[in-house]
Amino acid sequence: MNEKHSNNSDELLALASKYCEESLDDSGTRRLEELLRGNPDNQLVFLGYLDLHARLCWEARSSDPVADSPSELRLQEKPAILRGRSWIPAAIALSLLVMLTWWTFRIPPNANPIPPSQDLAVATVVRAVGRWGDELKTVSPGYQLKSGIFELSQGIVELEWPSGVRMILESPARLDLISSDRVFLHTGRLVTKVPPAGVGFVIETERVRLVDLGTEFGVSVGLSGSTDVQVYEGAVDAHTRTVNGTRVPGSRLHAGEAFSFDGAPKKLAFAPDRFIRRFPATHPDPKTELPYNRSEIEAIHAVRLDQPPVVDGDLREWNDPHSFSAACIEPYDDTYRVRGMIGYDDKRLYVAMHVADPAPMANMMNAEAESQFFWTGGSVILRVGADDALGWPLNASKERKLPPGRIRDPIKDSSHQVVHLGMWYSKEQQASQLMLQYGIRCKLHMLATEGWQGAHRRDPDGLGYTFEYAIDYDLLNASPPQPGDVWPATLAIHWSDEAGRTCMGRLIEITNPDEVPFLTFDAASWGKLVFEP
Amino acid sequence: MSGSTPPEQVFGSTTSCIAHRKNQVVVDSTKHQKFAELFVRNEASVYRYIVSLVPNRADADELFQQTNLTLWTIWDRYDASCEFLPWAFGIARNEIRNFVRKRNRKHYELTDDVIAELTERRLRDHELLAEQQDMLNTCLDKLSAKQRDLVSLCYGSESSMKAVADQRGQSADSIYKALQRIRDLLHNCVQRKMMLAS
């Protein structure tokens, strides 16, 4: 290989480092020149390294002295640019000029335009499908963000402030949460919606300071600092930034307007799809019901119990070799997972599970008033066809159109042995709940008060819960199953936000691999519950 | 004004971009404003250019100050139809030449042909280098408090590295190595981010 055009990266960096320190001797200088001469790649590496050195010089000259430094080593309190007397007239001239210049902007070598303020939680992650930081850690709903820089490397998150301000942030983004009513967007895209209580919320960028007047608007900041703003509703005041950090009187942007702030502000065509305004739905396509996991289990097994378990949420007495486990897809698999066991005897069906959940047992839904939505606050739903005679796959569907070649079975479609068992802990009632919905269409439902027992128990670390239920067969319109019986079955785990109202994600497991896509209300796509001898 | 030597040489096509209008009395305020904009927008690039040729911070600061002064002294000789950076780099280069000659600071002067190549490379890849600076923002945040202290002490101090080392009870060599590690860490961080971004 021709040495001249190879990178010689280590040697080059070592020489560049010595060059920074002025400790390069003649032979070192000549070698450095050899590596640089006629080699664009090496030149770029060298310049990048020296620019880094320049940045450290700049940072040091403009930062505060370190607290424990000896006085003779303290930094200058003012930037060196103002030290020399000969500079003063020009500096004054410059200041006057920039005061006259409307659209000039601060281009920093200086890193932090506005330092983080207090070490307080200022916003909460409400919904998230993303990773943050260099280590690409999972962003989870419920995370409290303190003041400081939040770097979203992948995905999208929805943040909420105590004032009710909501923000959808798209990656890659670098957002400085300065206080409860102020952020600085270094790079990235966001849409914020500000309720009356949040009026005055400020979003700053390198180019512009935006004061919200009760509105919904989107902001994007490119790597160069160029800022685009688009107002969907209401109005926002935009103040451009000047070289010395002062602001000049701004202009008011109204709904339907879009501007680019990079050099002179430029009006843009309003483009409704420029920003993501709503957090992507859990089910992007209702016909495919995409879950946050890949189902891998076709059948689970119910073990016959000689002794009924004590229904207290303590699973230690369950030593079931037929237990099953499932988890959401990476990177959610550590945080959102489930391990379950099913048992039976001649009187009851027993269900026991551990659910990893960062917001455990938080369900605040009023099941009587909103029986169709109890699940959104965090729940587990086991759906069964409670009779071996129903057959597997179970031909019961609420779908209007069935796949070609499949004939509808009206009896199975209306069978009340098709039962959806909704299990959750009501935070308000401080009690386990059981909702029973009958038929594939769930036309009949009841909040069960008798014929069952249930108990929930929160994990000591607050990151999950266990539960146990014992359910009479009468509630399932079923007879006690016999060993070898197969019930069509499927399982859905729902995770909520901390408020216990909004479904943040779900897992679907126990499915028929031959029936894709999975459809909750087409029982042919359900898996099996096999009763062991 | 002392030190405001007119450019002896500028790079590329910049020579033809100096408008000789010394007799002009009336200040064109619009042009002045535009020049102010360009100056502010590009001052960081000029600083980085100077440091890459004169890595000593105190010397670079002085040269930066002098270059800015010269730029403002002869601002009306700038032809707005030409690129600002080549013109500003040319002036900075002349200031550096004068400085090296007067102060006898030959030891860190690269040869003219290499400097010309580096200048050309900097102008060609200006946006890429600016992007690296953006990446550096994040990387700087990742320095530990201890590393920040060392950077502040070594980069922010007028004292020699030996004095800093004595103060910390360490050898100068160990301080140099620690600084090199910090720079390498930042360099790797920036490169990684550039790769991810691409």
Report on this structure.
The complex is a heterodimer of chains A (533) and B (198). In chain A, strand 9 and strand 10 form a beta hairpin. Mean pLDDT of chain A is 79; it is low at 1-7, 62-119, 242-249 and 282-291. In chain A, 12% of the residues lie in helices and 35% in strands. Chain A folds into three domains: 3-105, no CATH class; 121-268, Jelly Rolls; 299-531, Immunoglobulin-like. Chain A has 533 residues and is mainly beta. In chain A, the strands form two sheets. In chain A, strands 1, 2, 3, 4, 5, 6, 7, 8, 9, 10, 11, 12, 13 and 14 form a 14-stranded mixed beta sheet that branches. In chain A, strands 15, 16, 17, 18, 19, 20, 21, 22, 23, 24, 25, 26 and 27 form a 13-stranded mixed beta sheet that branches. Chain A is elongated. Chain A has helices at residues 9-20, 26-36, 40-62, 88-100, 410-413, and strands spanning 121-132, 137-139, 144-146, 148-160, 166-179, 182-193, 202-204, 208-212, 216-221, 227-233, 235-240, 251-254, 258-261, 266-268, 299-304, 324-327, 337-344, 348-356, 379-385, 418-426, 431-438, 444-447, 452-458, 464-472, 486-496, 503-509, 527-531. The relative contact order of chain A is 0.09. In chain B, helix 7 crosses helix 8 (172-197). Residues 1-27 of chain B have low confidence and may be disordered. The longest helix of chain B is centred in the last third of the chain and has 26 residues, at 172-197. Chain B has 198 residues and is an all-alpha fold. Chains A and B meet through helix 1, helix 2, helix 3, helix 4 and strand 4 of A and helix 1, helix 2, helix 4, helix 5 and helix 6 of B.
